[in-house]
Predict the 3D structure of the following.
Amino acid sequence: MNIEILTLLFFLALFVFLFSGLPLSFVLGGVSIIFIWATWGPEAFYMVAAQTWGAMNKFTLVAIPLFIFMAMILEKSGTAKDLYDMMYVWFGPLRGGLVIGTLVICAIFSAMCGISGAAVVSMGAIALPSMLEKKYDKLMAVGCINSGGGWGILIPPSVIMILYALISGESVGRLFAGGVIPGVLLLVLVSTYVLIRCYFQPHLAPALPPEERGDWGRKLKALKAVILPVAIVFAVLGSIVFGITTPTEAAAVGLLGSLVSAVVYRQLTLKVLLEASMRTFKLTGMIMWILFGAYSFTAAYHGMGAAHLIEDLMKYVPGGPWGTIIFIQLVIFLLAMVLDPAGIMMICVPVFLPIIKAHGFDPLWFGILFIMNMNVGYMTPPFGFNLFYLKAIVPSSVTMGDIYRSVIPFTIMECTGLAIVMVFPKIATWLPDLFFK
Amino acid sequence: MQILNTVLRFIDNINDWIGRILSYGVFFMFILVLSEVIRRYFFNSPTVWANELTQLIFGAYVILAGGYILRWNGHVNVDIFYSTLSYRWKAIFDIATSVIFFGFCGMLFTYGGSLAWESLTSFEHSQSAWNPPLYPFKLCIPIAALLLILQGIAKLIRDIMTVIKGEPVETVDTIEREVL
């Protein structure tokens, strides 16, 4: 059988089984081993088993459960509530101020933990009722949580970046550094949109009436809420970026910080710990099993020569190298509609990275674009995680239709951010080059 | 039928039990990594074993999770189409795709097993300064595959029962999924 038909069959089989509801890890693993069997023979399975062992035995990956555990603890600690109280008195007097405050908290949460869920859940429970009570427009209130909640994977630390580093061979530290400025860029873009829109349409997000603004005493007192989060952010990011510790060690330090803040807020109970450890176990296991399946996929994809075929096919994409980049982003965007980020990463990186490298693009920059794109995927229907989270916590006055409509302007702003980083790669690569020569 | 249910429940319980024990692993990893940081930076006396032990715990932690996660339907799938199906059709699809599932797990069992067997017969150690034995951890691969296969068989039997009865069998519907 020739390679074209084989490749076609391969992707067709993956597609069919994926949509039949079989979990991704078994689709990748199971379909691939049939094709490995047909092309290489079963000896190649030794390699897959050895790679499985290799992934079980990587110190960097230990950072994944630690970062996840940290997020689970932070979600339950009182940090978000105090931060919100602070934003309330400081930004409340502004038109759209609570939205800005929520976005800033989302960014802070993203800089503390490596996954997205914690920010959405916390803000959905704390900021959303407060904004609705203050007569903020519900689309604005829901949209900003949806948008900011996805930044967890872009603003370091990030579990997705650790996976990208593993598959692509980039350094985790460089990727983390690369996510900082694009993350800030998104915060600025989205905030600008909110400020401009609310300035001209004050009924969307009225400024707090003077009697609710709080005096300077309250404002200054509220500031102490940022001490712990900022300390955690510096401990985690600082130690990685300045090369003091490995990402795994930084994750342990950050986890310690989140435990401390849970103690400070008197939220640390045995129940919280055990529940968080169980959720961490499930999520880490799920991600790692996709990886185990993905090793078979990569072996099959490269083994049967599909890689060369796809590379040849990509030459037909119009627009040269830039056309290719845009095409790849579109593919990722479409995949993000049906799949979770870890899965997309493990399917797409082995397929697209060689092409990116062949065109002379920076793999680090590509990784950041990839993650920004999935960031949009988090908030867009039908498979945006943030949508699911929000659906579970919004009051009944907010319908699913409201949630869907609320993402439109925010998605446009985030796509603008993606385009800016695409056109100016320096935004992603400048900081890593500065710290890691 | 009674016996069958007992067996199915027994398989669930094995994975639940393993899952509960393993879920504590994150505490060990945390304490090991943190204490190593403290030893290195504050006492300037890193150990030769802490990082390697963490790594080995992590290996067992993630690979043995497979069966437990399957038991709670926690492996991520594309359900855009699947979720619209009735219980019976879901079960029919699951039975059809289980071939792929068993193929993968069987491969992992066989070849992970031979990897572990080689390691066991040669009493393989890691050759690092600490030099721990690796075979117990490599043995986790076939054990994990076996746990998955067992849980997969339990799921298959339940799916067949669902198709026959036309209504979901207990625990088929439990989904506890975490997302990234």
Observations:
- Chain B has seven helices and no strands.
- Chain B touches chain A through 69 residues (CB under 8 Å).
